[in-house]
């Protein structure tokens, strides 16, 4: 079906519709989302509401920002997302860009968007007790990651 | 809202499975221990509110605003294509 979204009209097949049973914080009333890839913003993607054409959040793979990103999914979240096999999991993080200052963009590594690809269930998970914060400057994370990559390539 | 007083070391139970213990009281701060089954999610209210703010801010982005945001050079990651 053709859907009107914030990032334009997109073709969404039934199998691409993600159900966020509790919405996401700030948009608790919205349940149906999909992930849109636009050539002009690749490799960023958009978590797009199929119920409100004003809502779309830029997301990115956390491993393109922090090479060593890792966390353990709590049992509560695993149960909610009905995850049986870790291979079913897809992970994204939300990008925030201050107006007119793309170099100050941050990612929310504390609250990743976790998706069960098999059942198309999604949730923004909170990593209480982890080292991650709601705002990680992308430029700082990239420098850090490049250092790690340099070190591991030497070995 | 149910309101009652507890001393340090005292506790109360919610339902059959959740126990909340007041561990320590120090000035204006209270240390609380919670025993709950693993399927019960516990997080601080203000953290949830901050994530709401962050998501609302993020949703203000336009396609153009992403221009100029740089990521790790994917070539350097070699054959690793996680996730």
Characterization of the model:
The complex is a heterodimer of chains A (155) and B (83). Chain A has 155 residues and is α+β, with helices and mostly antiparallel strands. In chain A, strands 3, 4, 5, 6, 7, 8, 9, 10 and 11 form a nine-stranded antiparallel sheet that branches. In chain A, strands 1-2 form a two-stranded antiparallel sheet. Chain A is globular and about 50 Å long. By secondary structure, chain B is α+β, with helices and mostly antiparallel strands. Chains A and B meet through strand 6, helix 1, strand 7 and helix 2 of A and helix 1 of B.
In short:
With 155 residues, chain A is of the alpha+beta class. Helix content of chain A is 15%, strand content 29%. Chain A is globular and about 50 Å long.
Spell out the key features of this protein.
heterodimer, A: 155 residues, alpha+beta, 15% helix, 29% strand, B: 1 helix, 3 strands, disordered C terminus
* Strand/helix succession of chain A: EEEEEEHEEEEEH
How would you sum up the global shape of chain B?
elongated
* Sheet with the most strands, sense and barrel status of chain B: 3 strands, antiparallel
Count of DSSP helices of chain A?
Answer: 2
Helix content of chain B: 10-25%
Report the β-strand fraction of chain A as a percent range. Answer: 25-35%
Detail the poorly predicted runs of chain B: 78-83
For the biggest sheet of chain A, the summary is: 9 strands, antiparallel
Strand content of chain B: 15-25%
**Protein structure class of chain A:** alpha+beta
Q: Look at the helices and sheets of chain B and give the structural class.
A: alpha+beta
Strand segment count of chain B? 3
- Mean pLDDT across the residues of chain B is 87
Average predicted local confidence, pLDDT of chain A: 93
Shape of chain A: globular
Q: Can you tell me the residue ranges of chain A where pLDDT is under 50 for at least 5 consecutive residues?
A: none
The arrangement of helices and strands of chain B along the chain is EEEH
Report the count of strand segments of chain A.
Answer: 11
Largest interface: A-B, 50 and 36 residues
